[in-house]
Amino acid sequence: MIDSPRSDLSAADVAASPMLGRVVATERKPNTPHEFHFWTALDSPVGIGTIVRVEGSDPVNGQILQVYGIVVEGFSYTDLQTPLHAMLGHDGTPDGASYGATKRAEIRLYTAAVLRHVPEEPLQPVPMGAVYLAENSDVAIALRMDGYLRPEANTGIPIGVYRAGGTEAAIFLDADFLIGPEAAHLNISGVSGLATKTSAIEWILSSIFAHFPAQKGSVAAVCFNVKGPDLCFLDQPGVIDAADAALYEKCGVPATPFEHVQYFAPYKSDGFSLNTLRSNEALLHNVSPLTWGLREVLQYAEVLLNKDDVDAKADALIDFIRERVVDRDFNDPQLLGNKHYHVRSFADLETWFRDVLSAMEGKNNDGWRTHHVATIRKVRNRLSNISTRCAGLVTDDGAVSDLPFGSFQDRTVYVIDVASLEEDAQDLIFARVVTKLREHLEKRDLGVNHVVVFVDELNKYAPSDGQDTYVRKMLLDLAERGRYLGLVLFSAQQFRSQVHRRVVGNSGSSLYGRMDADELATPGYAVLSPAVKTKLATLEKGQLMVRHPHFTQPIFLRFPRPAIMRGRDGAERYPQAVDVGLDAAVVRSLRTLDPSITLGWVQDAVGLRDEEEIVKARNATLRERPADVRKFFLAQLRPVVAAQPAARPVTSPVRSAPADDPYGF
Amino acid sequence: MTGPAVAVASSAILNTTFESVARRLAGTLPECHTVEGETALELMPAASQPARLISATIVEGTDVRARRISEAPAVGFAAFLDGTQKSRVAAYLPGGVPIVHGTVAAVIRERRDQRMRTWRHAIERRLYVSRVHVSDAVWQTIGAAGLELCDTSDGSVGEVEHPLVLRESAKHRVERDRERAEQRLGTDWCRSEPRPLLIDGGISNAESLAHAQYAIGVVKSHRTLYVSGDALKTVLALDCAERSSVFLVTSPKRASVASWYLRVRDPRGREPMWGLVRVEVASSDASMSEITRRADEVSGWILAESAPVALPDARWDKMVYGVRDCEEFLRAVM
Asked: Are residues A212 and A221 in contact, defined by beta-carbon separation less than 8 angstroms?
């Protein structure tokens, strides 16, 4: 409890604050402990979302009550009892048959929702008193930010600036409630096309990186780029205006792009062109391929195989393959004779399946090790199909290029570009990355203490209706238990009502950009007043409504445009590299390690080797990132025996032709 | 003889609302009995004043004629003055002598940028008792209740003891105090503001206002008509935006003022006095043309006040919005 809530202000300061209005209550419209009404002058700067302070006139327990509230509704009316009187007064002619010498008495009456009482006890209805515009210190008290902005224990993360009637106050979220462990997760809703959701997340990540308390350790972010070039240029500077620069300064966040960003993208189906809009050669230095082999995929087979595919029998066979076949020396003398298998890739697995089924057919067996031949055929069909469905991500040869689990860096953003992938591949990436993050955080060996996972289009991955999917279950688990591990979900969607309620319900903090009127009509927004809904439906770019565990009511604020190149601008400035042949693709990749590599050198190096071998050598080089790229790359290629001219064999004619035979026979 | 006003040193800190005073009287005068829920005296039925016709001297021409205000109405009033009163019996002394708690208030609401603001207002609360019907001790005790004490008797020992008569006397004293409060405010305005002030009611009962250039009284009640015969017919037949000729209202107890009738709303389909007001201005020795010009000018100002209408007040046909605004203000502060 704060004894002197405005102790930072001198008496002169308090007295200097102009009175804004007066609390008013009637029997029909009484004040309560959670709501009060006040009137103001017609020209007062009060609006929906304005924070005000009420000073009671009578002390309670020797202390003058102070109540902080936020305006949630406004009324305006005159002394006119019926519109008919106005019509009569103008003789039924709106354009003024008679001139009104006097404007009718008019009132601006506002309803405010209580943010905080000081002192907190006894909790009483809001007293009659004078109403003042909240100043900076008032805003901190009203939103209980004073509890976590203390110099000795500051866990505030600025997320924007509250502005009303000349007051400009930075609004802070409590890191304990944004990143955990007290609460965690952040969800943002808003209509598409205003660049609010993505911009807000980028801005908040910048702010987290700038203000994350040292005592809480390190933090990194993993962002899934699910559409267009939205997150493809996080490390490139963008253009901000003076107003945005002022917001950055007010919040104490440097107006610079992210310093450390790593991009990951699978290959296209050709296996050598990166499937991302950030494929311009100038930006490839921090883009790594994302490829997985059989072992990585098989762990998440259920992501790709729906319930119709994987019944109990099929599940048992997949478990058997995972446990007994993959990455192990496998043989079955009874069925396969002396043949030994070491399955490491989809290609190996296909060979294994083919041999098992051939042997069963040869011996006329319906079953093998309790697995029916039909089940084996079904699982073979489904698994073999994965490498086709997720071509570019899943490699036949088992080569793995992954996120640096175990060596995550503090204040680094890891962007995984899945925008151009099939839904199955997106799901697979999403499931595996999040699961791996969780596993490493559980073991405390990820490299950082906290990871923010940003997922856009949450209504697609965790819909409120439809069948239960692996991804949705995983998101629920993340939302409900992630905060204990330091795994935090930042999610975004257009329609919050279409997202599973347990996912959004577990978001400690929620942001709202401009909302669709239909969405606002759904039950989830019933707690908001009609005026707040109207404001939400008309929010400008750069404005947000924020809900946070410390704030008893939603707050409106402004945030700056991220100091990052916008996706559209980036796509124009750094156009996507055109698809090229294998040699050129290899040059493009290897140049990120050694800029001196030329197309001529690559062509000489690869010669007439087949595509599979060249890709394999390229992938190995990219994985190892050796000091001598040329040497390493060449070492990955099978040596070619130098061509030697064959000696012409000395042949003797079968039969010597007679010297006088003119025809040579 | 008027009873001595009892000085109350502590009045500044005592709560002078009706309820507080009634409670204090009940405590200090055990023999009195208080009343609860009694209606304000102003709302009780009173013997109505008989309607009458009084002849007046015509100063604009020789007979009362209808004169159309041809100029477009122009806004002229800068402020509006009205007052109100409320009196309730706080307690009855043995013998049915009422102790009346009276509140009078008056306000001038100034118009700036078409919005009404309070220029000045006054609220006065007093206790009204018939001095001749109470002992010295009781008079002193009542005086200690925290309010100025006013004697409602005329000083004669044989005054009627009927409680209703005593109550009625008190009401008239309150009414007189209200008129004084209005006059004080109006006089203050006229001394300091060279701008027209519309006063709800006549101005002839206050010398200072009756001679003030900028005080214009607008009378809505017509229990006394200053015309008769053909002149009466002419006045009652006035059309909207027509006025009567100017006449002089004189009375032994009041100052003489120039006056005329003005129809501010279309009377068709209504009773004869619908929208009819009587205007009072300071009389002068000006020429007839000057009298006509002044009457037309002031009439135009009043016609300009026809919007917005003073609805839902029942007297909206005659009441200007500025006066209704004054009444609303006084209702809020009393």
From this structure: no
Strand (E) or helix (H) holding A505: helix A501-505
Count the helix, strand and coil residues of chain A and give each as a percent rounded to the nearest 5: 35, 25, 40
Whether residues A100 and B312 touch (CB distance < 8 A) is answered with no
Cβ separation B309–A101 shorter than 8 A: no
Task: Tell which residue, A58, A45, A1, A37, has the closest CA to residue A19.
Answer: A45
Tokens coding A343? 């399955």
Tokens of A335: 């069925």
Over residues A121-178, the pLDDT tens digits come to: 889 999 999 999 999 999 999 999 999 999 888 999 999 999 998 899 999 999 999 9
Enter the pTM of the model: 0.80
Distance between CA A46 and CA B332 in Å, rounded?
A: 24
Residues above pLDDT 70, as percent of chain A: 92
B139-177 pLDDT per residue, tens: 888 888 888 899 988 766 566 678 888 888 899 999 999
Helix (H) or strand (E) holding A117: strand A106-118
Q: Is the ipTM beyond the 0.90 threshold?
A: no
Distance from CA of A158 to the nearest CA of B (A): 44
B73 touches chain A (CB under 8 A): yes
Interchain contact, A85 vs B312, CB within 8 Å: yes
Contacts from A250-254 at CB under 8 Å and sequence distance 24+?
A: A250/A161, A250/A168, A250/A170, A251/A158, A251/A159, A251/A160, A251/A161, A251/A170, A251/A207, A251/A560, A252/A158, A252/A170, A252/A210, A252/A211, A253/A158, A253/A203, A253/A206, A253/A207, A253/A210, A253/A211, A254/A206, A254/A210, A254/A563
CB A472 within 8 A of CB A500: yes
pLDDT given for residue A659 in this prediction = 61
Q: Say whether residue B333 is in contact with chain A using an 8 A CB cutoff.
A: no
DSSP-derived pairing of the beta strands B215-219 and B276-282:
antiparallel
